Amino acid sequence: MEALIPVINKLQDVFNTVGADAIQLPQIVVVGAQSSGKSSVLESLVGRSFLPRGTGIVTRRPLVLQLVYTTRDDNQYRSAETGTLDLDEWAQFLHKKEIYTDFDRVRREVDEETARIAGHNKGVSNDPIRLRIYSDKVVNLTVVDLPGLTKVPVGEQPEDIEMQIRDMVLSYIGNPNSIILAVSPANMDMAVSESLKLAKEVDPDGRRTLAVITKLDLMDAGTDAIDILCGRVIPVKLGIIGVVNRSQQDIIDNKSINDSLRDEAAFLQRKYPTLANRNGTPYLAKTLNRLLMHHIRDCLPELKTRVTMMMSQFQTLLNSYGDDVKDKAQTLLQIITKFNAAYCSTIEGTARNIETTELCGGARICYIFHETFGRTLDSIHPLAGLTQMDILTAIRNATGPRPALFVPEVSFELLVKRQIRRLEEPSLRCIELVHEEMQRIIQFCGTEVQQEMLRFPKLHEKIVDVVTQLLRRRLPPTNAMIENLVAVELAYINTKHPDFIRDASMVSNITNEEEKARNIPVRRAHEYDMRDQPKSSNSTAPVAPPCRKLKSLRLLLREWGLKLRKWFGVFRITSKNMTRYQPDQQYGRMPPNDLMIVGNSKEAANSNWFSSLIAGPRPEANAPSKEMSRESSPNTTPTHQKPVNLLPEVPIQQTRKLTERETKDCEVIERLIKSYFYIVRKSIQDMVPKAVMHFLVNYVKDNLQSELVKHLYRTDEIDSFLSESPEIALRRKEAAEMLKALQNANVIIGEIRETHMW
Q1: Nearest Cα to Cα of residue 606 among 573, 560, 574
Q2: Selection from 293, 295, 294, 263 nearest residue 280 by Cα
Q3: Which is it for the CA torsion 736, 742, 747, 750, positive or negative?
C-alpha cells in the first residue's frame, strides 16, 4: 500500500502542469492560526529546516509539499542527467528544473517565489508553490501548508485579509478527498481554536480531521495537556497528537532537527510517560502516512471513474473545436454544406439535436399557420364594425332616387368587400412572423455548425448577412402574392358559389315565408267592379263594360271630395298663393300648418282633392296671410325673391328604431354577408400558408446553398473568412493539454494492481 502515495504524487504532477483543479486528489491540508507551529511540524516531518521562519505571517502562499521516500538502491527517482544517483536527499521545485541539495537555498527560493507573486510586505496569494523532497528519512506524504488564520491586517494586507485567508483555507479543506490536520497551540484553550472550528464546518462528522497540539513545553506551570490529548475536552475521531516544536531561540542557535526530536522524546517521557508512545513527531509522521494511504485506497475507485468521465468530456469538447485548417477552400465548402443541411433539417424537423424546451424551426412555422394565424382569422367577426344603420344607409345609397321594392345587390357587394379587406392585415402579419422565425432558425441549426460559427466569427457574420438578405428579398413577392389573393376575392363577388347559393336560397325562402305570414290582402281592379255590381243569384250574369267601371269610380271619388270640402274648405293650390316654409329640422319633413292653401273655386275641390289630403286641415283657412295680401295688392311693387325650397335639409343619421321592412332588409344583408365572408375566410386561411411556403420557405430552402456559395466562395476573401478566433484557439489548446493530462492520469491509475491496495 506504500505504492499508493507515489501514485498520487504522479497524478499531482500531471495535473499541476495544466493547472487543473477539477480532479480532487487525496492530500493532507495543514490548518492553524498564525504562529501556531504549522511550519515547525512540517520541518519535523522532513527532518530538515527549509521553510521561512520568523514572527508574524511568514507563510503567505500555499505550499504543496510532496515527501518521497527513496534509498540509494532505488533508481526510480534517480538519474545521471539530474545528478541524483549518489545523493541521499534533494529537493526540486515544480517551476524550476534545478536540483537543490542545500536546504537553505530552498528556503531562499520559497521567499523569493512568495515575494514575486504576493509582494514584499505581508501580502497573500492563492497561487501555490509546489516542492518535492526526496529522502530516505521521510515517509511518503503529500502535505499542503496554508497561511495562518489572522484577524487584523498588517502592512500591505487588505482590510478583508481575514476573509481572503478563510476562503483560501475552505477551498482546500472543502475537498472531500483531503485530510484536515488542525494545528492548535497547547498554551491556548482548544474551545477557541479557529482550525477546529473551520474543520467542523466542512467535516461535521470528523471522519477526516486529525488534531495536532503543538508547544506542549510552553504550557503554564502546574498545568498539563492530558485531558486534551485523551480527547476529553474536544473529541476528534482520527485522534489528537501532541508534539514539541523548536523555539525561536533554537532556530537562531541553529539547533538541528535530530537534536530537537531527541529533546521532544525526553520531554514526553518525563511529562507524559503513559502517552509518550502515542505522541511526538515520529508517531505523527507514521499516522499521517497510514491515514493518507487508507484515504487514497478509499478514494481511488471514484477517482478512476472521474478521470474516465472527464476524458470523454474533453475529447468531445476538443472535437467540437475542430482540427487545424489545412485546405481552406475545402473547409469553407464543408461549412457551407453543413450550414445549409442543418438549416433545412431544422425547418423539416429532421435535425439530430431537436430542441425540447420550446418550439423552433418548422414546428414553430406550423404553429404560426394553424394556431396564431388561424385563431386570428377565426376571431374576426363577419359583421365587425358594421351596424344596422350602416347596412340601411348602404341599401338606401344603392337605390338612388327610386324607392326599392327589393334589397339591392350592390349594397351587399359594397358591404362584403369592406369586410373581406379586414383579412389582409392578419395575412401580412403571418408573413412577418414566418420571416422572423426563419431568421431565428440561424441560431438553432445544429451544435456542429454553431461550433464552426464560433470558431470563425467573420464567416458567421457573413453567413448571417447572406441569409438575412435572401429572406428580405423574398418578402416583397410574398406580400404581393397575399395582397393579390385578397384583391382576387375583392375583384369578383361570386354569388353563384355552390356554398353561397344554398345560403342565399335559404334567405329567400325565409323572406317568402315572412310575407305569407303577414296575410296582407291585395285588392285588384276587378274586385272594385264586383263590389259595385248588384248581387244576382244568376252566376252567369254579364260583366259590366269598362266605361261603366270608370264612371262608378269617378262618382265615388266625387262623393269623397264633396265631403272633404265641407270639412276643410279645400281650394286650388297655385304657385302664387303658396307660402314659404321652414322644414322640420328634427324629422326632416314639412309641417302641415306651414303650407297655405287659398282659393274659392268649386272645380278646385273636385280636381285637387288629393292635394288637400297632403296639406291637411288649417284652422285659419279663411283668413288671408300677410304674404297673400301683399301679393293681391295692386300697389305692391314686385320684389326679387329666392326660389322656393320645398325639400328639407339632409337628415343627420341618428339612432332610431327601424321599421319592420328595414329590419327585414338588414337581416337579409347580414345573413348574406356572413355566408360569403365565411367562404372567403376559409379560402384565405387555406391559401395564405400555401403561398408563404411556396414564395418564402421553400424558395429559401432551395436556393440557400447557391446563395451562400455565390457570396462566400471567393478566393480573395477565403483567408479572411477562415481566420480563427483567438479565444477558440486558446480553448482548443487548453482542451488538448487537459485531455493529454487525463490520458496520462488514466495510465498511471491503471498501473495500480489490486495487491497494491492491501
Answers
A1: 560
A2: 263
A3: negative
∠582-583-589 over CA atoms, to 5°?
Answer: 155
User: How far is the C-alpha of 196 from the C-alpha of 210, rounded, in Å?
Assistant: 9
Query: Of 164, 141, 128, which is closest to residue 210 (Cα–Cα)?
Result: 141
Element (H, E) at 558: helix 546-568
Mean pLDDT of 229-255: 84
Neighbours of 436 (CB within 10 A): 13
Is pLDDT at 261 greater than 70 in this prediction? yes
- Residue 462, C-alpha cell as written in the block: 457573413
Return the residue matching grid coordinates 369578383. 492
Strands (E), 579-662: none
Three-class SS of residue 66? strand
Q: How far apart are the two ends of the chain, measured CA to CA in Å?
A: 6
Q: pLDDT grade, residue 510 (50/70/90)?
A: low
Residues across the chain: 758
Helix or strand (DSSP H, E) at 290: helix 281-321
Burial 316-349 (b: 16+ CB within 10 A, else e): ebbebbbeeeeeeeebbbebbeebbbbbbbbbee
- Grid cell, residue 728, equals 477558440
CA 488 to CA 477: how far, in whole Å?
A: 16
Q: What is the mean pLDDT of the chain?
A: 75
What is the Cα gyration radius of the chain? 55
Tens digits of per-residue pLDDT, 383-395?
A: 888 777 777 777 7
The tens digit of pLDDT for each residue in 270-318 reads 988 888 888 998 898 888 888 888 877 887 788 888 888 888 888 888 8
Beta carbons within 8 Å of 394's beta carbon, 6+ residues apart: 411, 414, 415, 669
* DSSP three-state, residue 57: coil
The side-by-side arrangement of strands in the sheet containing 141-145 is: 99-100, 90-93, 129-135, 63-69, 141-145, 27-32, 178-185, 209-214, 240-242
User: Which three-class secondary structure state does DSSP give residue 33?
Assistant: strand
Q: Which three cell numbers stand for residue 661?
A: 321592412
Whole-number Å distance between alpha carbons of 503 and 512: 14
Instruction: Find the angle CA(196)-CA(197)-CA(200) to the nearest 5 degrees.
Output: 85
Report d(CA 218, CA 40) in Å as an integer.
Answer: 15
Short-list 97, 126, 121, CA closest to 109: 97
Q: Cβ neighbours of residue 28 under 8 Å, at least 6 residues apart?
A: 141, 142, 143, 144, 178, 179, 181, 288, 291, 292
At 211, is the secondary structure helix, strand, or coil? Answer: strand
* Cα–Cα distance, 444 to 361 (Å, whole number): 8
